[in-house]
Design goal:
Layout: E1 2-7, H1 17-32, E2 34-41, H2 47-50, E3 58-63, H3 72-81, H4 88-91, H5 96-108, E4 113-117, E5 132-135, H6 139-149, H7 153-176, E6 179-182, H8 185-195, E7 200-202, H9 209-212, E8 222-227, H10 233-253, E9 259-262, H11 268-276, E10 280-284, H12 290-294, E11 296-301, H13 311-318, E12 323-325, E13 342-343, H14 347-359, H15 361-378, H16 381-394
Parallel strand pairs: 1-2, 1-4, 2-3, 4-5, 5-6, 6-7, 8-9, 8-11, 9-10, 11-12, 12-13
Helix pairs in contact: 1-16, 6-7, 10-14
Length: 402
């Protein structure tokens, strides 16, 4: 197949879960098919287009500035979002130049399939009814959970407004798309029942087993570790919740318990956690997350908001680190608590599950071993990419109806 893949960004540096998933799939897909990749370029990271040859036969950079969430311009976008019918998470990626680039490429090249990577790219595709919409999350669920967990009445109202607009937009896109590819059976079911989508395929989340394989004994970094982009609100909410409500309960029995928060661009309230507590380390962007996984006893995923599937769980499993997660954090993943993961939703229960693993080395090793066996047997990227290719082959042809 000759495939046009349109995404919101190039895949290096690889700092987001969606980038990891797309890159893991495309590196294998490009071995079997001719992949062309179209995305917004970031002048601050020229390696993005430069390294696109690792997963595509040809790349097409498009100029468009996605406004930084910490800037005054983003505050203006938030204000404008009150009056716009398009959800903010979509409108900030909208670009006439991207729409023109997609149309020109489709007219010039004879692509067999087109993949729209992420919902935010849907407005750029003039032929969504003949394309596959790759949905890494059910975006509506993220906004609804944000509203449910917001403590500030103004934020709660804004999130509800955005959730309502996202539902209308996402439902329309999923109904129009020639095919929707979800990342879990849970997400696929929601797209069918919530949006009335009829053409839905699903693929699992994968992991690079060799990359995360634990080396010889490594120096301890922290007792607990959280891995995740810290410019994503569900991660910020989860970390704040954990430090505020769970960590103090753990420290009643283990006063010296330490936590590493590892992820790019932490906002001020997360950076402050490290300044106020000597036992909390906030790293910001790191070149390699593996030493932090290998150097910790337990990986925590205390998410209360989110959608899709958390790659951080399979990565921790591949790294040989036991995981404690909320139900939302492990949603959509094929895991089997308590055999290969611990699940807890109340602060006291989450703290107790962490303590069991911190204090029981034999049980910790058993869970980590079973978890690695799970991901090694079913979820390495070559298998996931094969299923993705099969889904595309069974989906609509971009040439149909031309």
């Amino acid at each position: 197949m000759k495939i046009l893949f349109a995404g919101p960004n190039f895949l290096h540096p690889t700092t987001k879960g969606g980038q990891i998933r797309t890159l893991g799939i495309l590196r294998w897909l490009a071995r079997w098919h001719e992949v062309h990749y179209l995305a917004y370029e970031d002048p601050a990271h020229p390696e993005g287009p430069q390294r696109a040859s690792e997963y595509s036969a040809r790349a097409y950079p498009v100029s468009h500035t996605v406004v930084d969430k910490r800037s005054i311009r983003f505050a203006a976008q938030l204000a404008a979002g009150v009056f716009s019918r398009t959800p903010l998470a979509v409108s900030r990626y909208d670009s006439p130049q991207m729409r023109q680039s997609v149309a020109e490429l489709i007219g010039k090249e004879s692509f067999d399939r087109m993949v729209v990577d992420f919902l935010a790219m849907a407005p750029a595709c003039p032929c969504l009814e003949r394309s596959a919409l790759f949905q890494h999350n059910v975006e509506t669920m993220i906004w609804r959970r944000r509203a449910e967990n917001a403590w500030d009445p103004a934020r709660k109202l804004y999130y509800r407004l955005q959730a309502s607009r996202m539902f209308a937009f996402e439902r329309q896109a999923c109904r129009v798309a020639g095919q929707v590819i979800a990342v879990s059976p849970v997400d696929a079911g929601l797209m069918r029942t919530m949006f009335g989508a009829e053409r839905v395929s699903e693929i699992p989340t994968g992991v690079d087993l060799e990359y995360f394989a634990r080396p010889a004994p490594i120096e301890r970094v922290a007792d607990l570790v959280f891995i995740g982009s810290m410019d994503w609100l569900p991660n910020v909410d989860g970390v704040e919740y954990f430090v505020r409500e769970v960590l103090p309960l753990i420290r009643r029995r283990r006063p010296g318990c330490t936590l590493a928060i590892v992820g790019r661009t932490p906002p001020p309230q997360i950076a402050d956690l490290g300044r106020k507590d000597a036992g909390v380390r906030v790293t910001g962007t790191v070149a390699d997350v593996r030493p932090y996984l290998w150097g910790s006893a337990v990986s925590v995923v205390p998410l209360r908001i989110g959608g899709g599937t958390r790659l951080k769980i399979y990565e921790a499993m591949a790294a040989g680190v036991p995981v404690v997660s909320t139900t939302v954090g492990a949603e959509g993943l094929e895991v089997h608590p308590p055999e290969n993961i611990r699940i807890a939703d109340r602060p006291a229960d989450f703290a107790e599950r962490c303590l069991e693993l911190l204090e029981g080395e034999d049980e910790s090793r058993r869970i980590a071993s079973r978890a690695r066996e799970l991901v090694a047997g079913r979820f390495f990227w070559a298998q996931v990419a094969r299923r993705f290719a099969e889904a595309l082959e069974s989906g609509p042809s971009l040439q149909a109806g031309r």
